[in-house]
Amino acid sequence: MKITVDEEKCCGAGQCVLIAPEVFDQRDEDGIVILLDAEPAAEQHAAVREAASVCPGAAIFVGEEA
């Protein structure tokens, strides 16, 4: 799994941080997403997919490696 984020689309809702805090954080000044782990361990994959699906700004992109 390879994750990318689009800071321009992020609205700072913070759902990703609540769902997968080991993978996502937020900037203190504006709440924009910070990607902590672009290639998380397998046990994080379900949480990352959920975070991407609930992101109101559609700012999280999950790429599945072959």
Structural notes for this entry:
- The chain is of the alpha+beta class.
- Helix content is 23%, strand content 21%.
- The strands form 2 sheets. The chain has a two-stranded antiparallel ribbon. Strands 2-3 form a two-stranded antiparallel sheet.
- Strand 2 and strand 3 (33-35) form a beta hairpin.
- The radius of gyration is 11 Å and the shape is globular.
- The model has no long low-confidence stretch (mean pLDDT 96).
Key traits:
single chain; 66 residues; alpha+beta; two-stranded antiparallel sheet; two-stranded antiparallel ribbon; 2 helices; 23% helix
Provide a compact summary of the structure.
It contains two helices and four strands.
